[in-house]
Design goal:
Layout: H1 20-31, H2 38-69, H3 73-96, H4 105-131, H5 138-168
Helix pairs in contact: 1-2, 2-3, 2-5, 3-4, 4-5
């Protein structure tokens, strides 16, 4: 895997370095029929890896907090989301969208955390609704709680990617992207 601060390659094809990330990017690009640019696929792969890290942190935190503290599913899910958001933010800002416009960092940080808080509320309420149902066994409750949390997280994953890509981590237009004969 590449360093967190390394920007994505600007070429159509993924990097030719022998990294696992390059192999995954090449595979996904082939699966998409070459329709997406290498950097777009690479960004999506990085987003997926970041999301898996955040999800693992959140899921572990959810089960530990709910099982050990008895604080309630809604609060446990909120704490779990918060725990997963920290690595997600750092990896998004410095690894996935490292080339994003940094001219208004306060706006970027505020929008990222607002998006995360909305996601936390949605998943916390959803998880709490399932938890409030009567369950015969505590282990069944934990399994169902984890499954619902995972399902809601997958739906939110797509929505957040779109928000990050189009609003929060906008990349500046490169001069090389516009053809020389196009109007300015």
């Amino acid at each position: 895997m590449t360093a967190l601060h390394e920007p994505l390659a600007d070429t159509e094809a993924p990097r030719s370095a022998g990294t696992r990330e390059s192999a995954v990017v090449a595979l996904v690009t082939r699966m998409l029929g070459g329709a997406a640019k290498g950097r777009d696929v690479q960004r999506l792969v990085r987003y997926a890896v970041t999301s898996l890290v955040a999800l693992a942190v959140s899921e572990l935190c959810l089960v530990v907090v709910d099982a050990d503290t008895g604080m309630g599913a809604i609060l446990a899910a909120f704490v779990a989301n918060l725990a997963g958001t920290i690595p997600s933010y750092l990896m998004s800002r410095y690894w996935i969208w490292s080339e994003a416009d940094r001219s208004r960092p306060a706006r970027q940080v505020m929008l990222y955390w607002l998006t995360s808080l909305v996601s936390m509320v949605i998943s916390s309420v959803s998880t709490g609704a399932i938890s409030d149902a009567d369950h015969a066994h505590h282990v069944l409750k934990l399994l169902l709680l984890g499954a619902v949390y995972l399902f809601v997280s997958l739906i939110l994953w797509v929505a957040k990617y779109i928000a990050y890509q189009t609003v929060i981590f906008q990349t500046p237009q490169l001069l090389d992207d516009t053809p020389a004969d196009s109007p300015a």
